[in-house]
Amino acid sequence: MRSEPSPLAKTTKIFVGIGFICLVFSDVAITTVDPWDEFGRLLAGLVSPDFYATDSVIQAIAYTLAFAFLGVTLANLMGLFLALLFFSRIIRTLCAVIRAVHELFWALIFLQMFGLSPLTGVLAIAIPYAGIIAKVYAEILEEANPAPLKSIPFGTSRLSAFIFVQLPDVWAHFRSYAMYRLECGIRSSAVLGFIGLPTLGFHLETAFKEGQYSEVAALLFLFYLVIATMRFWIKRPLLPIYIIGAIIILPWGVQFSFSNIVRFLTEDIIPYPIRSGGSFEGLSDWLHLMVVDQAIPGTIATLQLTMIALVATGFLTIILFPLISPLLLGKFSRFFGHIFLVIARSTPEYILAFILLQLWGPSMLPAIVALTLHNGAIIGHLIGRYTETVQLRLDAVKGFNRYIYEVLPRVYSPMLALLFYRWEVIMRETAILGILGIATLGFYVDSAFADLRFDRAIFLIAITALLNICIDVISRSIRSRLRLQTSLKQH
Amino acid sequence: MSLLEIHEETVGYNGTSVLRELNLTIKNGERIALVGESGSGKTTLLNLIHARLGNVASLVPQELGLVQALTVFHNVYMGRLHERSVWRNLRNLLLPLKADIGLVVPILKTLRLEDKIHSSVGELSGGQQQRTAVGRALFHTGEILIADEPVSAVDEHQAREILNSITSNKPTVVLAMHDRELAIEFSDRLIGIRDGLLVLDEDASGMKPSDLDHLYRNKDE
User: Fold this and answer.
1) Residue A293 is part of a domain; what is its CATH number?
2) Domain coverage including residue B82
3) Would residue A392 count as lying in a domain?
4) In chain B, which residue ranges form alpha helices assigned H by DSSP?
5) Which listed site, A309, A394, B62, B96, has its alpha carbon 20 to 30 Å from A46?
6) B chain contacts of residue A393, beta-carbon cutoff 8 Å
7) Which residue of A has its CA nearest to B47?
8) Which residue on chain A is closest to B55 by alpha carbon?
9) Which of B49, B50, B52, B70 best tests the A interface by mutation, with the highest count of A CBs <10 A?
10) Residues of B with CB below 8 A from A400's CB?
11) Tell me, what CATH number does B20's domain have?
């Protein structure tokens, strides 16, 4: 009488199995002598933030916002333009490639070309974001109501049809997505500080290494405040002022040489054996070294960490979303749930991993916890909000029974959809965490940049991008096979 | 014995009144049918009765309230969630216990749904979903069953089967019905609502569907 297990349950079992196997073979440990002692000092700092530690606190926030504003504005312009050309296969592929490379990798590349010029930070955000925005805007345009477009006179030009018919229809969607991207941009901008740009991350790293936890607290609190109050200070008439302000405050005076840029693009990134006119043997040695010693171990560690983080994120989401669900908790408890989720999802994985690494010492554990906490809070937030639209029958049970029978089965499929949607994001972030010393692909990329072996760095970044595109393709096929929809509408 | 007495000046949501001058007494063992146009206030009255009675009554809401991702067994079992331990519920969610399947099967048999016990509700037809929701209310241990249009998605033959199953399993029932003939056949007390007022409250025996004409607005007027 038992019927086939549902495809959702089967997929879940397979992924949990893979995640578990990855965890068994992972290196998870706390290696610091006294992690609690350090944690205690961090907590003491957190409750006594020192906003006057340096005058750089305000400057750090201002620079962080300036990079984010210019980068995201540029990305929106380019993304909109690319979205209109999305019917072309070449444009679609181009967008897939530029968004498969993480903004920190872009920053490391531009750092070689433009040095510490603001151009490095602005482009590092603008380029990958343009690829993401192009895809999302193209999807929004595709889903727009086609009826009005059919009712305009023959011979109307494409552009005027777009401006008068399509754009007004999708404008609200574009605006809310652009707002979300700006929030992401502020997070990215903060993290860019870790590779030397004058944003929040730079001061955070310095303060942390010096044990100035009160300054760390001040930086983090201001950062949360800026993000949490975004919808109050982002107003359309103020946007030009912010953008002009951003252009004014950034230190454009930093010089860069064009010959440097040309050399980087035409010589430095060409594999060394080819550049030096070496033999075929030399090239095969180079490839052997790159693939066997770096790309393969880096890829294995990246995939391993990604799978652990993906499954753990799923488990954490199941625990976190009730914190803000009106079906399960009262107003008072939900208030604290919201605060916790805002903090967890506003803190970039990179910063979380950095902090945990200082507390626990090097292993995969800080990265796993950081990725899980950040992504679990994001999906938990979306699912929690989704439950606000779910109508339960009047005589539905209460408490834990309601959670497992009424709520969880209803949100399970949208939750898996979001989880698979973020799989690629988690992978991109996993690779990047290598810069902190975990042996994922980012570790090898960072080492290659540090040794000024740019040919190796570009090769490894290309491998990372390829891996990311593969994950994206697999995720999309799973989502379409399970008929999972990421747009959270009640059916 | 009187089960419930309701005396209200007005009943409504957010300041708009749906029912007025409401005086209603329900006794144990009564089989009540509510008739009236859609929008006259039947659903509001049913929800009010259910809210007053609490867990001694089970409810079949008009929109059914099924969990599409779960099986028929799970949805019917949900009628007794509040009486079981959380561990047992968790166990049944992951792997249904034989003992509980044994309790659910007889109810599904009377609804001719036993072969669908392990199907997801999302895959069922509208009529099968409606029977699942009735099954959940029957599995509930309360003596009273309240149902809002419980046979709107099935043909007349199946409607009789379902209504038979409801009235033979629960001593007290309150049903909102759009089919006047079935309403008279399966109730012993008819309550008619028009524009938020109870304008009819009579013994159902001997009534004809045409006796209820005045509850419905004449389309030609």
Assistant:
1) 1.10.3720.10
2) 2-215
3) yes
4) 42-53, 72-77, 86-94, 98-110, 126-139, 156-169, 180-186
5) A309
6) 59, 61, 63-65
7) A394
8) A395
9) B70
10) 86
11) 3.40.50.300
Number of domains in chain A: 2
8 Å CB contact between B128 and B108: no
The answer on pLDDT for A378 being more than 90 is yes
Q: Say how many domains are in chain B.
A: 1
Pairing, β B197-203 against β B189-194: antiparallel
Question: ipTM value of the model?
Answer: 0.72
Q: Which member of A396, A400, A412 has the closest CB to residue B65? A: A396
The answer on pLDDT for A282 being more than 90 is no
Interchain proximity B69–A396, CB inside 8 Å: no
What residue of A is the nearest CA neighbor of B69?
A409
| Chain A interface mutation, best of B44, B46, B63, B67, highest count of A Cβ atoms under 10 Å | B67
pLDDT band at residue A163 under the 50/70/90 scheme: confident
Whether A345 and A371 map to the same domain: the answer is: yes
Pairwise CB contact (< 8 Å): A401 & B82: yes
- Mean residue pLDDT of chain A comes to 89
Does residue A296 surpass a pLDDT of 90? yes
For residue B137, the chain A residue with the least C-alpha distance is A395
Tens digit of pLDDT for each residue in B142-151? 999 999 999 9
Question: Does residue B220 sit within a domain?
Answer: no
Put simply, the answer to whether A405 touches B50 (Cβ < 8 Å) is no
- Report phi then psi at A453, rounded to 5: -95, 80
Residue B158 placed within a domain = yes
Q: Which residues of A touch B117 (CB under 8 A)?
A: 1
User: A275: part of which helix (H) or strand (E)?
Assistant: helix A272-275
pLDDT tens column, A418-450: 999 999 999 999 999 999 988 999 999 999 999
Do A202 and A67 reside in the same domain of the chain? yes
The model's pLDDT over A2-49, given as tens digits with 9 standing for 90+, comes to 556 678 889 999 999 999 999 999 888 888 878 788 888 888 888 888
Instruction: Work out whether strand B2-13 and strand B189-194 pair parallel, antiparallel, or are unpaired.
Output: unpaired
Q: Give yes or no: residues A374 and A434 share one domain.
A: yes
How many CB atoms are closer than 10 A to CB A451?
Answer: 10
Q: Is residue A57 very low, low, confident or very high in pLDDT (cuts 50, 70, 90)? A: confident
- Final residue of a domain: which of A251, A268, A285? A268
A100/A131 Cα distance (integer angstroms): 9
